[in-house]
C-alpha cells in the first residue's frame, strides 16, 4: 500500500509540476548584435543594396521590421552599455570608446543588467563575442590596469583573473574579446574572466588582405589561437555549442543568448568561405558572412526545436564606418547609410538609425513593418515585460516597454515621448515626432573638412543656418537633414531644449516604476477637481453656514482636510499655469490673466491673449497631463482650458490629454449655456443655446444645454470606459465663476433649488444654488467610484484656483466666503490665495484628519507623479506630499518658503513657516510682515520689529523669480504705489481691512 501511495504521489507531483511549467513557459531570448551595420546595408531596408542578405530578409518576413530604430550612441562602447543597462551612457560621464584593456567596466557592479535581470527570472545567460564595455586586468604586483593602447597590454599578468567581465555582470558564460576583436591591440580570447591562451608576439600583417577595407587593424599583441579572419566563425561555434548543450542539459530552463559579432566592423576580413561571394568587394563579402551567421543561428534553433519559443532580436550598434562608406559608394555604388545623411560618429540619422528586426512565432505578426520610434535601450524593459519581471526605479532608466508594439496592441499612440542620442564626445540630440534637435553645430563626430580615406569633405552639406548654435530639422519634410530651421522655429527649439535639459537633470526618461513610498503595485486612479473662485470658507467643512455642500463635507470626513493650502496665483490663468506645470509664479510662464502689451480677444466670449506668443506655454514645459500620460495613464480634462493663449484646440492632445472638452478662452467660460464647446479638435455648437432662448440672467429652466451638466456626462462616460486601466481625470470646473451683474449679466442655472424661500437677494440665491449643484456633481463622482468598485484605488483631490470673488452677487457679505482671511481674489493677501484642499483615498488616507502643512498647487505635479510611480520633471518647483497624505509626516520633505508674484498691482508674497510677507506696487515699496500663526487675518504688520525676517523675505523676493524671453509680458518693475489704480468697486483702501 505504501508503494502504491508513493507512486500516486509521484504521479500527482509530476502533473502539478507540468502544470506549473506550462503556466511559467517563458520564452528563450536571442539577441544578435551586428557591429557598424548601416540601415542601407540590409536588402530589406535598401532595395539598392549590393550585398545580398537573404537570411535577414527572411527574418524580417517572419517577424517585425522597424524602420525608425536607433542605437543610443553613434559608436560602440556607449551603445553596448546602454543596451545592457537600459540607461543612456552619457549619464556615466564617460565619452569615447575603450581600446585594448581600457577600463574599468562602465557598468557599475551594483547595477542591474539585462543579463542579471533575466538570471533572476530563472534564465541561463550567455554572451559570445565582442564585449567592449571595459574590464580590469592586473599586473604582476596585483595593480589594476585601466589603460588604453599598447602600454596596458604589456603589463598584463595572465595568471590573474580580470574583474568587470561579462560573467560579473549577469552572464553565466562568456567567450569573446575585451574590445574590438580585430582592431584594438589585444588579439586574444577571454574565457569567463581569464585569457587561457595569452598573446606571444605582435600581429604580423604581412599575409593579411590589403584593400580599402583593411583599415583600423592596429599592430597589437596576438595569441597563437587568434586568426583575425576567423573571429566571427569562432563566435558562431561558441553560440551554437551553447544552444545544443542547453537543449541537452537544461531543456526546461529558458535561456538568454547575446551573440555580439565583429562583423561588419573594420577591418573587413571575411573568412575564406565568403571571399568573392558577392559582387560588392571584401566588405560586401563581409556583410554576406554576417547574414549567413544569422541564418546559421536560426537553423540551429530549428534543429533543436526551439524556434517557436524563442524571441529573436537583431540590431546594430551604430551606423556604417567612414572608410567603408566612402569606398563602397565609390567602388560598388552601395550606400550603407541610405537614405540618411551621416555615418558612424555623426549625430545625423545615418549615424544611429539602424536595422532592427524581431521574430517571435505566434506572437509577433509575420511581415509587419513598424515605424514606431525605438532605441536599443528599450530592449531591457521589453524583455522584462516579456518575462514578467518588475523593474526597480534604479534600473533601466531610459528603457521603454515595446511589448505592446510587438504584439500589435499599442494602437496609434507612441510609446516614447521622444528619442535621445549621444555621440562619443557626449554631444546630444533629441527627436520628438518629426522634429529633431542637434544641440551642437556640425556632425557631432566626424570631420567634414578632412581629405583622404577618412575624409568626408566630398559629402559636406552647407549649413543653411551657420550662425545658429545648433540644428533643427523637420524629418517629415526633410529626411535628409539638409535645411536647418533652428532660427526659424525658436518655439520648437525651446521645447526640445527644455526636454533635453529635463532628460539630463532628471536622471531618467522612462516612467518611474514601483515607487518606494507605496506598498501598492497598481497605480491609483487620480481625480483632480478644481473649482473657480471658491473661497477658503465657501464650504461647510471650512466654516460656511448658509450654503449647503453635504457631499464635499462628507468627502472631508472620509479623507484629509488641509488648512494651509494655497492656489498657485490669485487669478485664473496664472493659477492654472502653475498647477499644470508644477512651477511657482517666479518661474511659470504666465503671471497674470492679461499681461500688458498684449491684445485680448473677447469676441464671442473668447477671452484669450491674441498677441501673446503661443510657444510660451504649455508647449515648452512638460504638463501634468503629459507626466501622467507617459506613466501609462489614460488622461482627460473637462472644463475650463488652462491657457489664456490662442492655442489650436487640437493641440491639447499633444500636451498630455487623450481627450479634453471645454472652453478655449477664459471669457467663454463665463457662459453656462455656451454657443460652442471644443472636444479635442472638434467644435461642438449648441443651437438650443441661441441668445433668444437662454442668454438672459437668472434661472433658465429646462431650455438649452447647461455646460456643468454636460461635463458631468462626459466625466461619467470617461470613468466607465477607463475603469480597467489607471486614469487621470482633471476637472477644472467653471463653477462658481460668472460675469458681474454690473456688466449686464448674472449667474445662469437651471433651477434655484432649495434656496427659493430664503430671505436673500435673487443673486445670492443663484450663487448658493450653483454651489450646491457643484457639490452634487462631486457626490456623483464619488458614488460612481463606489458603484464601479474603484473607490479604494482612486485618490480624489478637490481645491480652488484662487480666493473668493463676491462680485457675482454685488459684493454683499452674506456668505463671508473668505472667512477670517484678508482680501479676496486678485490680491496676494491670504484671502486671495489660501483655498480649500480636500484629499480622499479610502484605505490609504486615514479618515477625518485635518492638517496644517503649508503647500501649494505647484506641489501637485510632484505629488501626482509620485503616486503614479514616475519622476517629476526637473523643472518643477514642487515637492511630493505623499508622505503626509499616508500618515508619515516625519518623512515629509521640508521646504523653506512658498513664493508668489502677480503683475496686477505689481504684487509679491512669501510664506516662510509662521511668517507671511507681502509687497505691492513694485520693488521699491516696503514689505509688510505678518505672523499668520497668530494673526491669520493679517491685521498687524510686524515688519518694524523683525528686521532679520524682512531682510530674508526681501532676498527671497529677488532670488525666487527668474527672467526669460517671456517675462517681458509680466514685468515686475519699480512702479510706485501711486501709479496703481485699484478696483474702487471692491477695494476702498488697500491699507485697511475694511472692504475686503
| Main sheet: strands, sense, barrel | 10 strands, mixed
Number of strands: 40
Question: Any low-confidence stretches, pLDDT <50, length ≥5?
Answer: 1-23, 515-521, 975-996
Number of helices: 21
Shape, per Cα inertia axes: elongated
The structure class reads alpha/beta
Mean pLDDT: 88
Query: What helical percentage do the residues reach?
Result: 10-25%
> Beta-sheet strand percentage?
15-25%
From the N-terminal CA to the C-terminal CA, the straight-line distance is 94 Å
Describe this structure in words.
The chain is α/β, with parallel strands linked by helices and 996 residues long. The strands form ten sheets. The protein has a ten-stranded mixed sheet, sandwiched between helices. Strands 9-7-4-12-1-13-14-2-15 form a nine-stranded mixed sheet, sandwiched between helices. A four-stranded antiparallel sheet has the order 17-18-19-20, covered by helices on one side. α6 (231-249) packs parallel to α7, α12 (550-557) packs across α17 and α16 packs parallel to α17 (762-787). The model is unreliable at 1-23, 515-521 and 975-996 (pLDDT under 50).
Summarize the structure.
This protein has 996 residues and is an alpha/beta fold. Helices cover 24% and strands 16% of the residues.
Produce the secondary structure layout:
Layout: H1 2-23, E1 28-34, H2 54-62, E2 64-66, E3 69-70, H3 76-85, H4 114-120, E4 124-130, E5 137-138, E6 144-145, H5 150-153, E7 173-177, E8 186-187, E9 190-191, E10 201-202, E11 221-222, H6 231-249, E12 255-260, H7 281-303, E13 310-316, H8 322-332, E14 356-359, E15 368-370, E16 374-375, H9 378-387, H10 403-406, E17 419-422, E18 428-432, E19 435-438, E20 471-474, H11 490-506, E21 525-531, H12 550-557, E22 560-562, E23 565-566, H13 572-581, E24 600-601, E25 608-609, H14 624-630, E26 634-640, E27 659-663, E28 676-679, E29 682-685, H15 691-694, E30 698-699, H16 707-721, E31 727-732, E32 748-749, H17 762-787, E33 794-800, H18 830-833, E34 837-840, E35 849-851, E36 855-856, H19 859-868, H20 882-885, E37 898-902, E38 907-912, E39 915-919, E40 928-931, H21 947-959
Parallel strand pairs: 1-12, 1-13, 2-15, 3-16, 4-7, 4-12, 8-11, 21-31, 21-33, 22-35, 23-36, 26-27, 26-31, 30-32
Antiparallel strand pairs: 2-14, 5-6, 7-9, 10-11, 13-14, 17-18, 18-19, 19-20, 22-34, 24-25, 27-28, 28-29, 33-34, 37-38, 38-39, 39-40
Helix pairs in contact: 6-7, 12-17, 16-17
Amino acid at each position: 500500500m505504501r508503494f502504491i501511495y508513493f507512486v500516486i504521489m509521484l504521479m500527482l507531483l509530476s502533473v502539478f509540476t507540468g502544470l506549473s511549467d506550462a503556466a511559467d513557459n517563458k520564452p528563450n531570448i536571442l539577441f544578435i548584435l551586428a557591429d557598424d551595420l548601416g540601415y542601407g546595408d540590409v536588402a530589406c531596408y535598401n532595395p539598392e543594396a549590393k550585398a545580398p542578405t537573404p537570411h535577414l530578409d527572411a527574418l524580417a518576413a517572419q517577424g517585425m521590421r522597424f524602420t525608425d530604430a536607433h542605437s543610443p550612441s553613434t559608436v560602440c562602447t556607449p551603445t553596448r552599455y546602454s543596451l545592457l543597462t537600459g540607461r543612456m551612457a552619457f549619464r556615466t560621464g564617460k565619452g569615447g570608446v575603450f581600446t585594448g584593456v581600457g577600463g574599468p567596466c562602465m557598468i557599475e557592479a551594483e547595477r542591474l543588467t539585462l543579463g542579471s535581470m533575466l538570471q533572476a527570472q530563472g534564465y541561463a545567460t550567455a554572451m559570445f563575442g565582442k564585449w567592449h564595455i571595459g574590464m580590469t586586468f592586473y599586473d604582476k604586483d596585483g595593480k589594476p590596469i585601466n589603460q588604453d593602447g599598447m602600454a596596458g597590454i604589456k603589463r598584463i599578468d595572465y595568471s590573474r583573473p580580470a574583474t568587470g567581465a561579462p560573467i560579473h555582470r549577469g552572464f553565466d558564460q562568456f567567450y569573446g574579446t575585451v574590445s574590438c576583436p580585430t582592431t584594438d591591440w589585444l588579439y586574444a580570447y577571454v574565457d569567463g574572466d581569464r585569457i587561457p591562451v595569452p598573446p606571444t608576439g605582435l600581429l604580423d600583417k604581412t599575409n593579411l588582405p590589403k584593400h580599402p577595407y583593411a583599415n583600423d587593424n592596429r599592430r597589437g599583441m596576438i595569441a597563437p589561437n587568434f586568426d583575425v579572419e576567423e573571429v566571427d566563425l569562432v563566435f558562431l561555434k561558441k553560440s551554437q555549442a551553447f544552444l545544443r548543450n542547453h537543449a541537452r542539459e537544461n531543456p526546461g530552463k529558458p535561456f538568454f543568448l547575446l551573440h555580439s559579432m565583429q562583423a561588419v566592423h573594420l577591418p573587413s576580413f571575411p573568412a575564406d568561405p565568403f571571399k568573392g561571394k558577392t559582387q560588392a568587394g571584401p566588405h560586401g563579402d563581409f556583410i554576406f558572412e554576417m547574414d549567413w551567421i544569422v541564418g546559421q543561428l536560426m537553423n540551429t534553433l530549428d534543429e533543436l526545436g526551439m524556434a517557436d519559443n524563442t524571441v529573436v532580436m537583431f540590431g546594430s550598434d551604430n551606423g556604417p564606418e567612414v572608410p567603408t562608406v566612402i569606398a563602397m559608394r565609390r567602388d560598388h555604388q552601395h550606400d550603407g547609410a541610405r537614405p540618411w545623411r551621416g555615418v558612424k560618429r555623426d549625430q545625423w540619422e545615418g549615424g544611429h538609425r539602424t536595422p532592427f528586426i524581431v521574430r517571435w512565432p505566434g506572437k509577433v505578426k509575420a511581415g509587419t513593418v513598424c515605424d514606431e520610434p525605438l532605441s536599443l535601450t528599450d530592449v531591457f524593459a521589453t524583455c522584462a515585460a516579456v518575462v514578467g519581471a518588475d523593474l526597480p526605479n534604479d534600473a533601466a532608466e531610459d528603457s521603454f516597454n515595446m511589448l505592446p508594439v510587438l504584439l500589435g496592441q499599442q494602437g496609434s499612440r507612441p510609446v516614447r515621448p521622444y528619442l535621445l542620442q549621444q555621440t562619443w564626445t557626449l554631444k546630444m540630440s533629441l527627436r520628438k515626432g518629426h522634429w529633431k534637435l542637434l544641440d551642437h553645430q556640425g556632425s557631432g563626430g566626424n570631420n567634414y573638412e578632412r581629405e583622404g580615406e577618412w575624409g568626408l569633405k566630398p559629402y559636406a552639406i552647407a549649413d543653411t543656418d551657420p550662425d545658429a548654435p545648433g540644428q533643427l530639422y523637420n524629418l517629415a519634410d526633410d529626411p535628409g537633414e539638409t535645411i536647418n530651421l533652428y532660427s526659424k522655429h525658436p518655439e520648437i527649439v525651446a521645447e526640445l531644449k527644455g526636454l533635453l535639459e529635463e532628460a539630463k537633470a532628471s536622471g531618467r526618461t522612462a516612467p518611474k516604476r514601483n515607487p518606494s513610498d507605496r506598498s501598492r503595485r497598481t497605480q491609483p486612479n487620480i481625480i483632480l477637481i478644481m473649482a473657480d473662485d471658491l473661497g477658503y470658507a465657501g464650504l461647510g467643512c471650512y466654516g460656511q453656514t448658509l450654503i449647503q455642500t453635504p457631499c464635499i463635507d462628507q468627502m472631508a470626513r472620509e479623507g484629509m482636510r488641509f488648512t494651509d493650502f494655497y492656489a498657485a496665483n490669485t487669478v485664473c490663468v496664472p493659477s492654472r499655469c502653475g498647477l499644470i506645470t508644477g512651477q511657482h509664479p517666479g518661474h511659470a510662464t504666465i503671471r497674470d490673466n492679461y499681461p500688458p502689451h498684449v491684445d485680448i480677444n473677447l469676441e464671442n466670449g473668447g477671452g484669450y491673449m491674441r498677441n501673446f506668443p503661443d510657444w510660451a506655454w504649455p508647449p515648452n514645459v512638460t504638463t501634468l497631463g503629459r507626466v501622467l500620460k507617459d506613466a501609462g495613464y489614460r488622461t482627460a480634462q473637462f472644463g475650463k482650458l488652462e491657457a489664456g493663449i490662442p492655442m489650436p484646440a487640437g493641440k491639447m492632445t499633444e500636451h498630455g490629454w487623450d481627450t479634453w472638452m471645454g472652453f478655449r478662452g477664459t471669457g467663454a467660460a463665463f457662459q453656462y449655456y455656451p454657443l460652442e464647446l471644443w472636444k479635442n479638435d472638434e467644435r461642438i455648437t449648441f443651437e438650443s443655446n441661441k441668445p433668444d432662448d437662454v442668454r438672459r440672467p437668472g434661472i433658465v429652466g429646462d431650455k438649452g444645454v447647461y455646460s456643468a451638466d454636460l461635463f458631468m456626462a462626459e466625466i461619467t462616460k470617461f470613468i466607465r470606459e477607463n475603469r480597467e486601466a489607471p486614469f487621470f481625470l482633471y476637472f477644472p470646473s467653471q463653477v462658481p465663476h460668472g460675469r458681474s451683474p454690473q456688466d449686464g449679466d448674472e449667474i445662469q442655472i437651471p433651477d434655484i433649488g432649495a434656496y427659493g424661500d430664503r430671505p436673500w437677494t435673487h443673486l445670492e440665491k443663484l450663487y448658493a444654488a450653483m454651489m450646491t449643484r457643484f457639490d452634487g456633481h462631486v457626490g456623483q463622482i464619488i458614488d460612481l467610484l463606489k458603484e464601479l468598485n474603484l473607490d479604494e484605488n482612486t485618490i480624489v483631490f478637490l481645491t480652488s484656483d484662487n480666493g473668493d470673488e463676491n462680485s457675482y452677487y454685488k459684493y454683499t457679505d452674506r456668505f463671508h466666503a473668505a472667512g477670517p482671511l484678508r482680501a479676496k481674489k486678485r490680491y496676494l493677501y491670504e484671502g486671495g490665495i489660501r483655498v480649500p484642499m480636500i484629499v480622499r483615498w479610502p484605505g490609504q488616507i486615514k479618515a477625518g484628519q485635518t492638517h496644517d502643512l503649508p503647500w501649494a498647487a505647484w506641489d501637485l505635479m510632484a505629488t501626482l507623479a509620485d503616486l503614479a510611480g514616475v519622476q517629476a520633471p526637473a523643472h518643477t518647483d514642487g515637492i511630493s506630499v505623499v508622505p503626509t497624505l499616508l500618515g508619515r509626516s516625519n518623512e515629509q520633505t521640508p521646504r523653506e518658503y512658498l513664493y508668489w508674484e502677480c503683475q496686477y498691482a505689481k504684487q509679491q508674497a512669501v510664506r516662510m513657516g509662521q511668517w507671511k510677507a507681502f509687497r505691492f506696487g513694485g520693488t521699491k515699496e516696503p514689505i509688510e510682515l505678518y505672523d499668520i500663526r497668530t494673526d491669520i487675518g493679517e491685521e498687524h504688520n510686524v515688519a518694524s520689529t523683525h528686521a532679520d525676517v524682512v531682510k530674508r523675505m526681501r532676498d527671497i523676493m529677488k532670488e525666487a523669480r527668474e527672467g526669460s524671453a517671456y517675462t517681458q509680458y509680466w514685468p515686475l518693475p519699480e512702479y510706485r504705489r501711486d501709479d496703481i489704480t485699484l478696483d474702487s468697486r471692491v477695494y476702498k483702501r488697500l491699507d485697511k481691512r475694511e472692504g475686503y
